[in-house]
Amino acid sequence: MNNQANEQIQEIASLVFQSVLDESENWQQMISRFQFLDGAMKDTHAWVSDTNDVVFYFPELDMEIAEKVEQLRVASMVDDSQWIVCLLTIDSNKEINIDFEYEDGERWPPRKFEDLV
């Protein structure tokens, strides 16, 4: 991963992290999924409670996050291909994990977020 992609990940994580703090103080993990279909971005967000319940929340996607996600797609290209799904998780210790999917647009569906916990 190049430096530009790492910077974008840190910035996106910080913005999304703040949005989950606005929702709840009692969480152990935050999950954000960004998907691109037909040129449009769709985002899904959830936080995992101390009792392992997955709670979906719907922050207003701010243009800054959308721009950072678009920049991350460019910075993390593989063989001239951009990812179509990105899964970002942050735990309560602020440890960030990010995965990209370049082929399967149905990878990590929100209905299966419970499996990620």
Based on secondary structure, the structural category is alpha+beta
Approximate shape? globular
Read across the widest sheet, the strand sequence of neighbours is 3-2-1-4-5
Instruction: Describe the largest sheet.
Output: 5 strands, antiparallel
Overall number of strands: 5
Considering DSSP H and I runs of 4 or more, what fraction of the residues is helical?
A: 25-40%
**Approximately how much beta-strand content do the residues carry?**
25-35%
Question: How many DSSP helices?
Answer: 2
What's the Cα radius of gyration? 14 Å
Determine the mean pLDDT: 86
Helix-strand pattern, N to C?
A: HEEEHEE
Low-confidence stretches: none
Distance between the termini: 25 Å
Features:
single chain, 117 residues, alpha+beta, 5-stranded antiparallel β-sheet
Characterise this structure.
This protein has 117 residues and is α+β, with helices and mostly antiparallel strands. The protein has 2 helices and 5 strands; from the N terminus they run H-E-E-E-H-E-E. Strands 3-2-1-4-5 form a 5-stranded antiparallel sheet, with helices on one face. Helix 1 (3-23) packs antiparallel against helix 2. The longest helix is centred in the first third of the chain and has 21 residues, at 3-23. The mean pLDDT is 86.
